[in-house]
Amino acid sequence: IQVTQSPSTLSASVGDRVTITCRASQSISSWLAWYQQKPGKAPKLLIYKASSIESGVPARFSGSGSGTEFTLTISSLQPDDFATYYCQQYNSYWTFGQGTKVEIK
Amino acid sequence: EIQLLDSGGRLVQPGGSLKLSCAASGFTFASYAMSWVRHAPGKGLEWVSSIYGGGSTTHYADSVKGRFTVSRDNSENTLYLQMNSLRAEDTAIYYCAKGTEYSSSSSFDYWGQGTLVTVSS
């Protein structure tokens, strides 16, 4: 299963609403996760099963979608949120999207 | 507190072998599937291999199938990745990651700090 993430880079300001999209090449039901990765650090799980928020993750992060189309939304971008975000399907083995780098505008 | 400590990465020549380890603590290791994920320079994350809790079921990415072998020692709470016939394109930071289920696909809720493997002559 291929996973296509867009955009590859996103420039935004603190306080902006940010949306990242992930599309699967076939239906994966809700078996999709979102991760945040900062330079030199391991990825951190944000969202699992498409819309379930991991414990300890701020409520400004939310996920939606099912089937083949999914979104990660950050309702009000904070300074700590500038990072690279990856989606991951786990319906059939595991595949990561190409990543979206969220940069300061 | 759940901790995963990756180790074993180093510089190795093309065609060489290397064994990575991941020492786990803070949870019942045998109850969860474990995986290896790598991050090559300038590229995105790539799933490498997974092993279910009992150790009898394993899965591999096509890029490493036949060259890498994942295993686990549930008595020592340790995950391993034996890497043979290494190529330059295997150069990456390798992370171990904990699944949220014993024997099915799941997201990865805890990650090691990563260990760098460099394949170069």
Describe the structure.
The N and C termini of chain A lie far apart (33 Å). Chain A has strands spanning 3-6, 9-12, 18-24, 32-37, 44-48, 52-53, 61-66, 69-74, 84-89, 95-96, 100-104. In chain A, strands 2, 4, 5, 6, 9, 10 and 11 form a seven-stranded mixed β-sheet that branches. A four-stranded antiparallel β-sheet of chain A has the order 1-3-8-7, with no helix packed on it. Chain A has 105 residues and is mostly beta strands. Chain B has 121 residues and is mostly beta strands. Chain B has strands at residues 3-7, 11-12, 18-25, 34-39, 45-51, 58-60, 68-73, 78-83, 92-99, 108-111, 115-119. Chain B starts with a strand and ends with a strand. The A-B interface holds A 31, 33, 35, 37, 42-45, 48-49, 54, 86, 88, 90-99 and B 35, 37, 44-47, 50, 59, 61, 95, 100, 105-109, 111-114.
As a percent range, the share of helical residues of chain B equals: under 10%
How big is the Rg of chain A? 13 Å
Structural class of chain B: mainly beta
Main sheet attributes: strand count, strand direction, barrel closure of chain A: 7 strands, mixed
Largest sheet of chain B: 7 strands, mixed
What would you report as the Rg of chain B, rounded to the nearest angstrom? 13 Å
SSE string of chain A, helices as H and strands as E: EEEEEEEEEEE
The oligomeric status of these chains comes to heterodimer
Overall spatial form of chain A: globular
Shape, principal axes of CA atoms of chain B:
globular
Strand and helix order of chain B = EEEEEEEEEEE
Helices of chain B, by number, come to 0
Helix content of chain A: under 10%
Average residue pLDDT of chain B: 97
How many strand units of chain B?
Answer: 11
Unreliable spans of chain B: none
The most extensive interface, with participating residues per chain, is: A-B, 23 and 20 residues
